[in-house]
Amino acid sequence: MNDAPMIEMRGVSKSFGTLRVLDGIDLTVDRSEVVCLIGPSGSGKSTLLRCINFLESYDTGEVRVEGRLVGYVEGNGRRRMPDRALREIRRGIGMVFQHFNLWPHMTALGNVAEPLIRVRGLAAAEAGLRARAMLGRVGLADKEGEYPARLSGGQQQRVAIARSLAMEPRLMLFDEPTSALDPELVGEVLQVMRDLATEGMTMMVVTHEMGFAANVADRIAFLDRGRIIAYGPPRHVLHESTEPRLRQFLQTYHERNNF
Amino acid sequence: MKLQVTLDAFPYLLEAAGTTLWISLLGIALGQVIGAAVCLCRVSPLRPLARFGAVYVSFFRGVPLLVQLLLVYYFLPYVGIDVPPLVAAIGSLGLASGAYVCEIFRGALTAVPKGQAEAAQSLGFPPAAIWRRILLPQMLRISLPALVNELILLLKASSLISVVGVTELTRSSHTFAASTYHPLEIYLTAAFIYLLMNLCLAAAGAMAERRLAAG
Questions:
Q1: Nearest CB to A105: which of B119, B129, B215?
Q2: CB–CB of A101 and B118 under 8 A?
Q3: 3-class secondary structure, A62
Q4: Which of chain A's residues have a Cβ under 8 Å away from the Cβ of B127?
C-alpha cells in the first residue's frame, strides 16, 4: 500500500496567455479527506481541480496523485507522459462536472456501463449488472432505461456520479456539481456526496455551497487570483480568518441569504 | 408528344436509373469514409496531417466534378493504371463528396460540447473509443440533414459520369433522345425519375432523423 498523500501539489502555476490563473499552489490532501475549494469566479478553482487529472496542463510545479507525477515524465523536465500512463492515472480518479456531461445518445444505464466496458474491459452483461447496482446506490434504479434528456438536472448529476463511482475511483473530483441545478434539486446531489464522504471517499469539491463546505469538509481552501490565501478546518476559514478578501467574499453570502 | 416513345424507353431508363442509384450510394458511402478520415486529419494536432486535410478539401471542392472525372478517366491510364469506367466514376464521386462530408463532420464536431469528450477522458477512455462511441454517433445525428442534402446533390451530380461512358440515367436518356428524335418526352421522363429518387431519399432521411431524435 502506497503511503504517499492522495494529492500533493507543489508550486503549481499556470497561465493562459498573460493571465496567471494558478500562481504557486501548494496543497496536500490525505486519504479520506474532503477538501472544498471556494472563492470568487475566475479565481482558478476549476483550473486547479482540472490539473489534478490533467484535463488542464500546468506550466510549472508538480501535481502528484498517490505519489505519481501527473502529466509529465518523472525527472524529465516538461516532457508529456505517454497517453497510456495518463489514462492509467485517470482511471483511479473520478470527476463530476458542472454540466453533468452525460452522453445524450445512451440511456442512464448505458452511461454508467460504457466506461466499464471500454476502460475496464468488462463484458456487456457484467457491466450492466454493476451499472444497475450503482444506479441503485444513487437512488435511480427505476430510471435505468431513460435517456438523459428525460431526467431532471439532479437525476442527471446523480447518474454522472454513479458513472464515476462504478469505476471504483480512489479519489473523486467535483467541479461545481450543483451550480447548474435548480435550487430545489441541489439537496439530492449534496446528499449523495455527503454519503460518499461518510464512507471515507477522498474528495475535492469546488463549490459555492457554503453549508456543504461548513458541514462536510475537513479542510477549506479559499482561492483568490490563483493563490490559496486561506486554508484550514471550516471553522477557521469561515469564522476565524481575518484575511480581508475572504471576509469580503463571505460577506456577499451573508447578504444574499439574509432575508 | 408521343406517349408510346416514353413507354418504349421506360424500362431501359429505369434500369439506367438503377445504375445511377447504386453508383451514387456507393459514392456517398465512400465519401463518408473518406470524409471522416480527412476530418480526423483536419482536426489533428499534427501539422502535416492538418495541412493535408486542408489541401484535400480545397482541391476537391475547388475543381469542378466534371473536370475531376475527366482527369481520373484520362490521367490514370496515362500513368499505366487501367481502371474500368465504373470504378473511376464511383471513385471520383467518393473523392469529391469526401471533401464536402469532411466539412460537414467538422462542423458537427464543433457542435458537440467539449465536455462530452472530457467526461470520457476523465474516465480513462482511449482516444479511438472516444471517437467511435462518444463523438461520431453525436456528429452523425447533428449532421444527418446536411448528409441527406449531400446525398441528393451527389445523385444529381452523378449525371456527369455519363461523359466517362457509364450508362446511367442521363446517358441512357441521351441515347434514346437521339435515336427516337423525341428528346422532350425522354428528358421529361428522366427528370421525373430523378425527382422521384430524390423524394424517396429525402423521405428516408426524414425518417432516419426522427428515429435518431427519438433515441
A1: B215
A2: yes
A3: strand
A4: 83
Q: Does the interface ipTM go beyond 0.90?
A: yes
Please check whether residue B114 is in contact with residue B160, taking contact to mean a CB–CB distance below 8 angstroms.
Answer: no
CA dist A62 and A77 (Å) reads: 11
In which band, very low, low, confident or very high, does the pLDDT at B214 lie, cut at 50, 70 and 90? low
From chain A, the residues in CB contact with B122 under 8 A are: 53, 55, 90, 93-95
B126 contact residues in A (CB cutoff 8 A): 83, 87, 118-119
Q: Which of B123, B133, B134 to mutate to test the interface with A (most CBs of A within 10 A)?
A: B123
Summarised one tens digit per residue, pLDDT across range A187-230 is: 999 999 999 999 999 999 999 999 999 999 999 999 999 999 99
Phi, psi of B190 (to 5 degrees): -60, -45
Helix (H) or strand (E) holding A110: helix A108-118
Helix (H, G, I), strand (E, B) or coil at A238: helix
Q: Do A103 and B134 touch (CB under 8 A)?
A: yes
Whole-model pTM above 0.95? no
Looking at residue B71, its pLDDT comes to: 86
Q: Do B113 and A99 touch (CB under 8 A)?
A: yes
Domain carrying residue B91: 3-214
Integer angstrom CA distances of residue A31 from A130, A248, B3: 25, 32, 87
Residue A89 is inside which H or E element, if any? Answer: helix A83-91
H-helix or E-strand spanning residue A219: strand A219-224
The amino acid at B49: L
Provide the Cα torsion A246, A248, A249, A254; round to 10°.
120
d(CA B37, CA B35) in angstroms, rounded, equals 5
Taking CB atoms and an 8 Å limit, are B116 and A103 in contact across chains? yes
What integer pLDDT is reported at residue B1 of this predicted model? 67
C-alpha cell at A74: 518523472
Whether residue B132 lies within 8 A of chain A, CB to CB, comes out as: no
Does residue B111 belong to the interface with chain A, where contact is any CB pair within 8 Å?
no
Please state whether beta strands A19-29 and A7-16 pair in parallel, antiparallel, or not at all (unpaired): antiparallel
pLDDT at A252 over 90: no
Q: Do A118 and B126 touch (CB under 8 A)?
A: yes
CB atoms B121 and A55 under 8 Å: yes
Interchain contact, B123 vs A90, CB within 8 Å = yes
Listing DSSP states for B142-193 in one string gives HHHHHHHHHHHHHHHHGGGGGGGT---HHHHHHHHHHHHS-HHHHHHHHHHH
Give the domain CATH number at B199: 1.10.3720.10
For chain A, the helix, strand and coil percentages under 3-state DSSP, each to the nearest 5 = 40, 25, 35
